[in-house]
Amino acid sequence: MEGSTTQPTGMVESAQPASGIPGDPLGGADHSSRGSRLGLEPSQRRLVTLRGIQLVCYSWINAFSQGLQRGFLAPWAALFRQLYDRRGNMKHLRIAIRLAIRCLKLTPNGHPSLPHYQQRLSTDFRDRYLATRSLFDLQVAFMLRKAADRAVSPSHPHFWWHRGNLRTIYMDRFHRLGHLPDLEVAMAIVKNAIESYPKDDRVEIAWWYQYLAAAHSSRFTRLQDLQDLEGEMVASQAALDATPAGDPYLSSRQNQLGTAYSHQYGRFQRPEDMESCLKWRNAAVNGVRAGDSNRALYLENLALAHSDRFNALGKSDDIDVAIRLNKQVITSGALGPVQLAQCSFNLFNFYIQRLRRFGLDEDIESAQLWIQQAVDSAPSGHPDVPAFQHGLGAVYSEKFQRFGRMEDLDTSIAWNLQAVASATEGGGRHYLPMCQHSLALSYKDQYHRYGDMADLESALHYFQAALNDVAPGDSFALVIQYNMASLYRTRYLGSHDVADLEAAMSLSKAVVAATPDSHKNIGTRLTLLAALHSDRYHKLGNRADRAEALKLYISSVELTPAGHADLPLFQSRLAIEYSNKYAMLRDEKYLEAALKYMSAAVEATPSNHRQRGYRESMLAKFHAQKSDSFRAPEERERGLSYFRNAINAPNMDPSDLWDTASEWAAFADRNKLPEALEAYSIALRALPELLWLGSNISTRHESLVRYKVTSTTMQAVASSIHFGNLELAVEFLEQSLAITFQQLLDLREDLSALEAAYPALSTRLADLSAELQKIAIVNGGDNGDPPIVGERTKTDRQRRLATERDSILKEVRKLESFENFLLPTPYSGLRDASAHGPVIMINCAKKDCDVLILLHPDKPIQHVPLKWSLVEEAEGQLGKLRAALGLCGIQSRDMHTEIDEYTDIGGDEEEPQETDMNGFNDGRLWWCPTGPFTYLPLHAAALRMILSNRTLHLAALLDARKSYAAERKQPSVTVVALSTAGGRASLPNVKEELLRIKARWDRATWSSWRMTRHFG
Fold first, then answer.
1. CB 982 within 8 A of CB 783
2. What is the Cα–Cα distance from 400 to 408, expressed in whole angstroms?
3. What are the start-end ranges of the E strands in 252-301?
4. d(CA 343, CA 363)
């Protein structure tokens, strides 16, 4: 999986000049370093201390509060503005604004100082906007500067000062609202200035070239147009060339040129561009004056350059330097809330990069700490807020990938949804593709965990939306296309639709073709294309695909540097491909290669990594292959050892746990080892998570088929019988029968014992179970159709309820006497199902067929082995039954002869078994079959003096008896009959059958009767 971390546009890599615009008559409308805002002569400024300024201002205001004239208001406003610049107290800025407004009101239209006063007031509103991010202040500042610009002609001595200020406010609007026309206007102002200024005025020309470079930089970041990249480089170099040595703004131009080289490296991945970026950014940091307000920005840009080189070369020194420099900026204490948020975001990125390369757990905690600070520090409405929210979602996604906790994935989705909403509604719309992409990845992870097609379709939707919104030529489009290809492959593996495979192949080929061998993600992209070639080989049988897959897997390993966090993934994929080739060609060298690369992958995977267990299980499987092929005892022991290690690995996905335990059990079975029973027990304990109640019923049924749950549990029963553990065989068989129905019974479980000891927990659990039961009933007829509008909310609600219920169950099981609460019932509780008559359980597994008879709770289980030929005969009879029922002419249920034939399986061929048939109670017995016997009417077999019944499983029988005993009322019967259903042939005798049943009921002593009729 490829992700991305993106620099917020608010953290502009190119430093805006610390001075005002060239030609500012009063020292700068937006900044104070090229002159004083006080409006005093230098000799006066030297005499006036800060405290003296306050005393003079307050005394003037008190003396002339009613008769202030315009000439006094302007310098007083400037004095309070200076106080704000020195102390950052918003009170001083508010006074400055009030004074400037009064000054502007006293200035008539056409007055020569009107544009100047408009610019001054605009500066005050802009300063307040920079502090509070209030869109109102930005818009007022914008209107004032446009008014001032209209009031001056090109011949005005301060014309370019006004034009420069107008350019600044257009750039502010662009960074806040993301409107490209604002950027275009700003760029046009700058180009016009460069054309109009005298070429020998190098000082002023340098400023304008730097502004032009910044405009090209912003537009390149948005549109990825190579002409902007070239324009940024040319303008940056021109600004530096026009700046003499010793100029106080030399560092600013060096930093800007470093930014241009950084963008060039990001586009072309040329090492020389990276080295040039580091050269100029180091020069900027080394040359900046002490106390310069831009020093923090230069340090941070240098940190970003080291981060880029780390991503390119993988040297840990670079990322360590980046983290150190960024922390130095944050701890300087000179940052406002916006700058603090942006610096924290960059530090989060550095920790994430180091985490993905080296896999250190402490890095994920540090990343979460800094991105949370970014979210908390950013003012509401700031255009970088979507990036910060996306980063927080990325942290929780990383935690899910490493630790497998579903609450982390839920939190990741919540933050990504918030980021998409913020990017859509606010000024950070350029972050929308990144946020949509991350949300799609989270839905993809959720699909892999739950198997719900709604999640897969949501992921595809957001991938496509991200691709539609990304700027043309943006390299991020390749990341989106890669992950879309991966998702199409996921859908193909479920649907086997060749169209999905071809869509994935087309996207993946385009991505690989556009990725140089030196790219940091080349291994990931080659691995996906290799997997697709392998899929196509297995689908279409073209040997060229098989050869290409192996070639690409080898390249992914060879092009990935040692120590890279993804190297174990590429090694494991290559190992699996070698194993597949061994299975086809039986050449031992391929099996040895598989063992070599999987061993390397396991060794390089941290012990707490989510994939550690899966990779150990694959290594165990390869050793098992070698043991089966060459009968090597040492390989058998290695295989068993790795299986045990894999089972005990933390954070294992339920599907991986099931597969590993099943493989282990099968391997132990093949070697006739009793530890097969332990492996089967572990596999069956994973069923509640594999078939989670938070998934809809169709998804759980698909999982039953996908993971071969029925055949595995049947083999577990056969293995238990083989090793003489009949009680465990009954427990296994019970867990395999009507699994989803048993889950519904769990929702109706008697909670009286819990209620007596812990009533609050009992009430919460009962409420959640009732809600889940309602959902199960409503969704019981799910036909697998795509979700309709609103279904997303229903699915999420079901998952939320199931998650909360799981949490309560874990809490209950920690309590004394409730350790096994709602866990599978042991045989000591199941045997009571035979209290009112024997229960006959039939198990069919591969070539074994066994009957287990529970005669009575106090009697031992009887085992009757059956010949496999009887199972084959049952399958044949089942086919006949289905064919008969499918004939349109069969409209009557008068099929006694046929049913007798279908239930007379085996005839006299089976040798009689000596079994104790005592224990019949009132001549009743219960059938509990599996396999083909499930669909045959065994309960209709003609057994003299015995009433045959059928039960789905033992828990259903126990639950029915418990409910009847609790109610203790007269028996009643409800009859539901349908004469037509689903457009099939009608049954003409339904009404007659109902009347006969009612007549017999009326003759009985029972009185309760309820008949529901549906005659179509």
1. no
2. 5
3. none
4. 17
Q: Is residue 975 very low, low, confident or very high in pLDDT (cuts 50, 70, 90)?
A: confident
β-bridge pairing 924-928 and 947-950: parallel
User: What secondary structure, in 3-state letters, does 1-25 show?
Assistant: CCCCCCCCCCCCCCCCCCCCCCCCC
Summarize the confidence of residues 477-505 as an average pLDDT: 94
320 token code pair: 């360590």
Strands of the sheet containing 848-854, edge to edge, are 862-866, 848-854, 839-845, 924-928, 947-950
* Cα distances (Å, whole numbers) of residue 228 to 14, 17, 107, 647, 871: 15, 20, 43, 55, 75
When pLDDT is cut at 50, 70 and 90, the band that residue 438 belongs to is: very high
CB 390, CB 435: distance < 8 Å: yes
Q: Give the integer Cα–Cα distance in Å for 154 and 156.
A: 5
Per-residue HEC secondary structure of 316-349 comes to HHHHHHHHHHHHHHHHCCCCCHHHHHHHHHHHHH
User: Using H for helix, E for strand and C for coil, what is the string for 801-848?
Assistant: HHHHHHHHHHHHHCCCCCCCCCCCCCHHHHHHHHCCCCEEEEEEECCE
**8 A C-beta contact, residue 178 and residue 428:** yes
Q: Quick one: what percent of the chain has pLDDT higher than 90?
A: 38
- Coil, helix or strand for 854? strand
User: What Rg do the C-alpha atoms of the chain give, in angstroms?
Assistant: 38
DSSP secondary structure code for residue 691 in this structure: T
For residue 909, the model assigns a pLDDT of: 36
State how far the Cα of 271 lies from the Cα of 797, in Å rounded to an integer: 51
Phi, psi of 834 (to 5 degrees): -95, 15
pLDDT at 748 over 80: no
Element (H, E) at 990: helix 990-1003
Segment 700-704 shows an average pLDDT of 83
What's phi and psi for 159, nearest 5 deg? -55, -50
Split at pLDDT 50, 70, 90, the class of 69 is low
Burial of 861 from C-beta contacts in 10 A (0-12 / 13-18 / 19+): middle
Element holding 1013 (H helix, E strand):
strand 1010-1014
How far is CA 87 from its chain centroid? 45
With residue 311 as reference, give the H or E element that holds it: helix 295-313
Q: For 346-376, what is each residue's pLDDT tens digit? A: 999 999 988 887 878 889 999 999 999 999 9
Q: What is the pLDDT of residues 264-280, one digit of tens each?
A: 887 777 888 889 999 99
Nearest-angstrom CA–CA distance, 646 and 648: 5
Average pLDDT over residues 771-797: 57
Q: Residue 774: pLDDT above 90?
A: no
Helix (H, G, I), strand (E, B) or coil at 785: coil
For residues 95-124, average pLDDT: 88
What's the burial of 804, exposed, middle or buried (CB within 10 Å: 0-12/13-18/19+)?
middle
Half-sphere exposure of 971 (CA within 13 A, CB side): 8
Q: What is the average per-residue pLDDT within 452-458?
A: 89
CA angle 777, 457, 498 (to 5 degrees): 115
Backbone angles phi, psi at 94, to 5 degrees: -65, -40
pTM: 0.63
Six-digit token pair at 620? Answer: 């165990």
| Cα–Cα dist 811/808, whole Å | 5
Using CB atoms within 10 A of its CB, is residue 143 exposed (0-12), middle (13-18) or buried (19+)? middle
485 within 8 A of 501, measured Cβ to Cβ: no
Dist. CA 187–CA 217, nearest whole Å: 11
Angle, helices 159-177/180-196, rounded to nearest 10 degrees: 160
Average pLDDT estimate for 737-749: 71
What whole-number distance in Å separates Cα of residue 791 and Cα of residue 221? 38
Token pair listed for 605: 């995977």
